């Protein structure tokens, strides 16, 4: 059973979903509206928040991730890193307790990898990152290593990376 702050995520799925945000490996699959600002505003609007408050929150999260200049752009116009940051903004505008990332730096160039890593490092929310990117996890406070579906290490990043390399044979 997976718990989140003592909450059984299966027994109370709705409450668990309200506490978590998820960033897909391909953020283009989760940005569904034609303009970035509209997509970021979707969560607060769907909860019935008043338009002025939605606008304030959207402006705040755009600024937080340094993507205010992307607000009026269409998703297909953005780079992979810009899409990743827009998806993160769309999740964080809902104020989750935990943000889960699936391979957040996959297929990003060096500049955008750095931007996404800085965004993850700067989160006030707890981050759970699923990744094979050893540089990304190198300064995390805790890293879990899985092999063939089993947890084989839980601890400090340097040791986790060594364990991963041992298992992967590299």
UniProtKB/TrEMBL annotation:
What GO MF terms are annotated? ATP binding; ATP hydrolysis activity; ATPase-coupled transmembrane transporter activity
SUPFAM superfamilies xrefs: P-loop containing nucleoside triphosphate hydrolases
One GO cellular component assignment for this chain's record is: ATP-binding cassette (ABC) transporter complex
Quick check: keyword Nuclease in the entry? no
* Keyword Transport annotated: yes
Record key words, sorted: ATP-binding, Nucleotide-binding, Transport
Please list the residue ranges annotated as the ABC transporter domain.
2-106
CDD domains membership? ABC_cobalt_CbiO_domain1
**What is the protein named?**
ABC transporter ATP-binding protein
The scientific name of the source species is Agrobacterium albertimagni
